[in-house]
Amino acid sequence: MLDNEDIDIDIDMDIEDVEDEDEEDEREDEDEDDDDEDKDDTEDTSYMSKFRYIVIKNEDRRTSNMISLFELVNVIGTRAQMIDSSTSEMIYVPLEGLKNTIEIAEAEIKLGKCPLSIERIVYQDPYVTKVELWKVNELVIPDIF
User: pLDDT tens digits, residue range 13-33?
Assistant: First the structure.
């Protein structure tokens, strides 16, 4: 079994070794980066600099103005969670007769006072995403409730 002095010495040695290895790794990474730059100066290697997120203008929208059942359920659930985790200042309908957050969210949608928007992806590839943003209040709600 090792005594405390041996452990302290080993830890000190390991820390110094790790620092030396980190310096060597940084130098190797710099050398690799220099080699990559020599290969192709025109190519940008940063993924985020290539990624584009394009929001289509309201007048150029292509998707239907009818909300799907999936979107509707998603909006009700999201809004109910928001109401549950916030204060009553964020509720846009009178609370008389409403028992829970789901009923409050449904009432907001029926009265056209829901503050949420829906993002519909129209086109997507690895570097470009085109989306349409629809406010819930401007979508046609199906007659299911």
Answer: 444 444 455 555 555 555 555
